[in-house]
Design goal:
Elements (H helix, E strand, L loop, with lengths): L1 H25 L9 H8 L18 E6 L7 E15 L2 E9 L1 H6 L2 E2 L5 E4 L2 E10 L6 E6 H9 L5 E2 L2 E2 L10 H7 L23 H15 L8 E3 L2 E6 L3 H11 L4 E5 L19 E9 L2 E12 L2 E4 L8 E16 L5 E17 L4 E4 L6 E9 L8 E7 L4 H17 L6 E11 L3 E11 L13 H10 L8 E11 L4 E9 L3 E2 L5 E9 L5 E7 L9 E8 L13 H9 L7 E15 L2 E3 L6 H5 L9 E12 L3 E3 L2 E7 L5
Parallel strand pairs: 4-17, 11-12, 19-23, 24-32, 25-33
Antiparallel strand pairs: 1-2, 1-5, 2-3, 3-7, 5-6, 6-7, 6-10, 8-9, 11-14, 13-14, 13-16, 13-20, 14-15, 15-18, 16-17, 17-18, 19-20, 21-22, 21-23, 24-26, 26-27, 28-29, 28-33, 29-30, 29-31
Length: 649
């Protein structure tokens, strides 16, 4: 309130001074004045009469900050300016302050206070944003408000990754008119920062996290070597197992998010504020429902429909769309390493629409896409809660991360037994405009509870990550469902060895291979597999590979559009409960434009090579396979050789 009253007084003085100058100039009492500086201020998108620029801040100045210590109402804490660090980040200074408050004297620098507005002489100077790990004093770094207002002034597209933001413009005009005025055509930026750059067919959420962490470390002050770093964002997790929280830490802690076991869900408190306010708590909801995860910070400044918060990036992902909520703070928890606020969401409001170097930008009116997820677990007698429902933020890294974390947590919670567990899962992924694809996963947990990591390598998470990170077009996931069946058994056959019954065969004669399996309990099992060997391999030594069906990938054409990518995921491997015996046929194969051709005749590849284009079919070595169903999952692999006698003419 003090800042706003000061703004009124400043404006009145400015108007009176301007009136006197104009009158004096009209009477010829003044020589021409260099008014360029004044015009620059008035036309500057970051100029506000109730803010104080860094240039006017001096050592020893005193003021106050606003943050929520408990509940939803912001409270004051005293501050004193230590000094200004110029060019702390590119074109961004940092104001060092000392905070004074009974709680902060104990807690020092607090995760969750990021974004708390700081005022000097009743004018906002910036946001509490940086601190020292293991700091012994309550000293913090403040991001100047000018840099945050630059983020606030950035125009936004109508559509991000295919999702309409539906942001209410400041002047109340139509969204389309606002978009035309800002020069956007309603499309997302082409760069799409944070996109997975590896082979989409082998999408790996851990590798994705590592690449994002490397990018973040390179953007930190001093390339990550400075002891002064952004205050961590506490990621408050509810309804998940400790193993799932640990997995979240592995994936997200290097990105500046600190997972903490807390609570919360996706409901609304009727008494909660309906809008954000300066100094209020704000949460970015990454998952909500039967499980929850929310990044907690503080609102710096609200201007109409939009606001800025945090004073540093969340993930520096640029234009995005993540659900946000009014937060409630339960307590400050003090720690020598890094104190933090613990809280929960109390009312979903708006969306995070821009994640920049100096702040996050949130719109009250924007709606962020979410992925509804349902999970059903069968096979556990007397299971009280077999069905799980939650919503996951729709984002190219957060979605696969939290789907894997949440599904792994549910499986771990429902199968917490000290006995062997085998499971199979059937999933459905619905993509707008492309229908549904069906996926299968499986696993065996020896000696007890499955790991929370079970799903981070699953076909479901790989497909979800690949679709969201595809380079061809925005993809909207409409829903995701999974049905898991548990069996309390170790359904494993260990491949003990393989033996060729006849080491040398005639041309055209099949090879016979005896496979010896060792079950978990019971006698050794043998199986003879007949493998046809074509006559054209006469005189050759043929190497036979024996692998489980779930490790043998089918030949697929490299995808060149989203539809082809989805098709590749529908049947990527052979049946999980099978053994595959294969060998190279010696004939070439090619894949091109979604089609695969194996065992081509000699010279066929050269005739397929285009003469007017450098885009040619991709060659591969053709293989012949024999697939043998088995009752359990095979573990292990082997290799044997058979010699084909030459044909004497």
């Amino acid at each position: 309130m003090v800042a706003r009253k000061g703004a009124v007084r400043y404006t009145a003085v400015t108007v009176r001074l301007t009136t006197l100058l104009v009158a004096a100039a009209a009477l010829g009492l003044l020589a021409p004045l260099p008014l360029g500086l004044g015009r620059a201020e008035a036309g500057d998108a970051t100029f506000r009469p109730d803010t104080l620029p860094v240039e006017k801040i001096r050592r020893g100045m005193k003021g106050y900050g606003l943050t929520v210590f408990e509940g939803t109402k912001p409270e004051r804490f005293d501050v004193e300016v230590i000094d200004v660090l110029p060019n702390f980040r590119p074109r961004q200074d940092l104001i060092l302050i000392k905070t004074k408050h009974p709680r902060l004297d104990v807690a020092k620098v607090v995760a969750g206070m990021s974004g708390s507005p700081i005022y000097i002489d009743g004018k906002m100077i910036g946001a509490y944003a940086y601190g020292w790990t293991f700091g012994a004093e309550p000293v913090a770094g403040v991001t100047p408000i000018r840099n945050m207002l630059e983020d606030l002034a950035r125009p936004l597209p109508e559509v991000i990754d295919g999702w309409p933001l539906r942001i209410l413009p400041k002047n109340g005009a139509s969204i389309a008119a606002s978009s035309r005025h800002n020069g956007h055509l309603g499309q997302a930026p082409a760069s799409r920062p944070g996109r997975y750059e590896g082979d989409l067919r082998q999408y790996d959420v851990r590798e994705h996290a590592e690449r994002l962490a490397e990018r973040r470390a390179a953007s930190l002050p001093g390339a990550g070597q400075s002891p002064l770093v952004p205050v961590a964002t506490p990621l408050l997790i509810g309804g998940m197992t400790p193993g799932a929280v640990a997995l979240a830490g592995d994936l997200l802690r290097p990105l500046g998010l600190e997972p903490l076991q807390a609570g919360g869900g996706g409901g609304t408190d009727p008494s909660a504020p309906q809008r954000f306010e300066d100094g209020g708590a704000i949460g970015v909801q990454l998952i909500r429902g039967d499980m929850s995860a929310m990044g907690l910070g503080t609102v710096t400044r609200v201007e109409g429909d939009r606001l800025v918060a945090f004073g540093h990036p969340m993930m520096e992902s640029g234009v995005t769309a993540l659900p946000t909520a009014v937060g409630k703070v339960l307590w400050f928890l003090a720690s020598d390493m890094r104190s933090f606020k613990i809280g929960m969401p109390v009312r979903p409001v708006g969306a995070l629409v821009n994640d920049r170097m100096a702040s996050i930008v949130v719109s009250h009116s924007a709606q962020a896409p979410i992925i509804p997820v349902t999970m059903r677990i069968r096979g556990v007698p007397g299971l009280p809660n077999a069905n799980w429902k939650f919503e996951v933020a729709h984002e190219k890294f957060m979605s696969p991360s939290f789907v894997s974390i949440a599904l792994g947590s549910a499986l771990q919670a429902m199968a917490s037994e000290r006995q062997d567990i085998s499971w199979t899962a059937t999933s459905t992924l619905a993509v707008r405009g492309h229908g549904r694809i069906r996926l299968e996963d499986y696993g065996v947990a020896i000696g007890g509870t499955p790991s929370a990591e079970e799903f981070s390598r699953s076909n479901l998470v790989r497909a979800l990550g690949a679709v969201l990170n595809n380079p061809w077009q925005p993809a909207l996931i409409e829903s995701l469902s999974m049905d898991i069946e548990l069996r309390y058994a170790r359904e494993i056959l260990r491949l003990r060895g393989a033996e060729v019954l006849k080491p040398e065969i005639d041309a055209g004669e099949p090879a016979e291979v005896r496979l010896t399996f060792e079950p978990y309990s019971g006698p050794v099992v043998t199986r003879v597999v007949t493998v046809p060997i074509p006559a054209h391999l006469a005189g050759e030594t043929v190497q036979l590979e024996i692998v489980p069906g779930y490790l043998e990938e089918r030949e697929t054409a490299p995808p060149d559009n989203l539809a082809a990518l989805l098709a590749n995921f529908e049947n990527p491997v052979f049946p999980p409960k099978s053994v595959v015996v294969s060998y190279a046929t010696g004939s070439p194969g090619v894949s091109f434009r979604g089609r695969v051709a194996s065992n081509l005749p000699p010279g066929a590849f050269d005739s397929l090579r285009p003469t007017t284009s450098s885009i040619a079919p991709a060659p591969f070595q053709s293989k012949s396979r024999v697939v043998v169903p088995i009752p359990e999952f095979m573990v292990g692999r082997d290799r044997v050789t058979v010699k084909v006698r030459p044909v004497l003419r």
